[in-house]
Structure formats: C-alpha cells, structure tokens
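Shift notes (night). Ran Integral membrane protein while the centrifuge was going.
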Amino acid sequence: MNLLQLLFTVVMFGTIGVALWKGEWPERATAIVLFCAAAASPLVESTLFASPEYGILAVDLLLLGWLGALALVTDRFWPLWATGFHLVGTVIHIARMADPTVVPNAYALGQVFWSYPVLAALASGALVEAPAARARRA
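Came back to this:
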C-alpha cells in the first residue's frame, strides 16, 4: 500500500466512522454502500488502469444509482452534492474509453480525486444535516 492509498483509506474509514456515529439512516446506509464499493473495486480491477476498468465502472454505476436515488427520496442536500461529484468520477471512465492515450496514472488519480468530495459530502451530512434533521423533529 503506497502513501496515497493509505491516505485515502484513513480518510474513508474516518468518514465512515463519523457517518455511522453521528448520521441517521441516509448517512449510515451510504457509509455501508461506500465501504462495499471501496472493497469491491480492487476485486474487479483488471488492468491497473492501463485500459478502461469495466469492473470498476460497474461498481461506480451502482454507487451512482444509490446516490441518485437517495438524493430523490431524502430531504438532505448532501446526496445531491455527492451524486454530482461521483458523476464526474464516473464520467472519467468514459473519457478513458474515448481516448486510449490517457496515462494510466492520470486515469487512476482522476478516480481517486473525485472520491474525496463524495466523502466530504457524506461527512457534512453526518455532522451538519443529520443533527439539523433531528432538531427539526424535536
């Protein structure tokens, strides 16, 4: 595991922990879905980003579907942001398919880069929107 992978793992588990601890059902469920997506991605990775990663694209599309559906059924704003950020990360796969000259490291880093704003959106949901939702119900 290199330093960037370690950093992402720490940020991801920290965000998941915050979502499980402070969040309500949308944040908790998304934390579990994000963990499953992060765990599944290395299992379906086939070419180390040397060519389009169709397995990771499938995982990303499932996650995009979850985030989009969540944005439609909840009264929270963070799923809208998370969906938008993840949509950009998912479109990177299409860009790689359209241009095979994209350097594998750029492709991989583009994928990882857009994961951080998704995690930030989830953290904001757990730390800001979930307490506000609890206060509205009280």
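Residues 3-130 form one domain. Helices lie at 3-22, 25-44, 54-73, 78-98, 104-113, 115-137.
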